[in-house]
Design brief:
The chain is α+β, with helices and mostly antiparallel strands. The chain has 4 helices and 5 strands. The protein has helices spanning 22-28, 35-50, 97-111, 126-134; strands at residues 12-16, 54-61, 64-73, 80-88, 116-118. Helix 1 packs across helix 2 (35-50). The chain is globular and about 75 Å long. The chain starts with 11 loop residues before the first strand and ends in a 48-residue tail after the last helix.
Length: 182
């Protein structure tokens, strides 16, 4: 049999999620979750969508949800949206489906009064971070500190003590002024 080349075309559509998308999302995007878990998440998101809190979009190919993105309005800042759950079925990644999902998510956010989108990612996700930078996201200069609750400070770590600075000679006119400590 001789090699044969052919052209494959498909029409993709980005739309709001429905409760009926749970099975496809489990099959194509979130394989480690159960259909029931995803169905419960979708029901919750659909209820929160009615309040303007969550916007979830899917990419549909031949009536199957093969991609997903979620925008959640920040609880304390209505103008801030948190992106999450960006997932695209592996064979469709070559068609820049994620690019289109992020662009439509930005449009939906803007239409609903969200001025800024953000996503938190571990530094180890270098490829994903670069993709978001390509989509116009920039790193913020934020430091996250954490401590395991209930663990004491290791004895090897010396506790800092404040040593007052040496007194400086008073210049004329310094009487009554407090010395600044930095």
């Amino acid at each position: 049999m001789a090699d044969q080349d052919f052209e494959l075309t498909a029409k993709l559509r980005i739309r709001a999620v429905t409760a009926n998308d749970a099975k496809d999302l489990q099959t194509y995007c979130f394989t480690t979750s159960t259909v029931e878990e995803i169905g419960n998440q979708l029901k919750d998101d659909l209820a929160r969508n009615k309040k303007g809190e969550v916007y979830r979009l899917v990419v549909e190919a031949s009536n199957h949800a093969i991609g997903n993105i979620r925008v959640e309005r920040h609880k304390l800042d209505n103008a801030l949206g948190e992106l999450s759950q960006l997932a695209v079925c592996t064979p469709f990644r070559a068609f820049q489906v994620a690019d289109k999902l992020v662009a439509v998510a930005e449009q939906v956010a803007q239409e609903n009064g969200i001025e800024t989108l953000q996503i938190e990612l571990p530094k180890s996700d270098g490829g994903i971070i670069e993709a978001y930078k390509k989509w116009g996201f920039a790193e913020r200069p934020v430091v996250t500190l954490q401590k395991q609750v209930g663990q004491s400070t290791p004895e090897e770590t010396p506790v800092a003590t404040a040593t007052p600075p040496p007194e400086r000679p008073k210049a004329p006119g310094d009487e009554g002024k407090q010395q600044e400590l930095l």
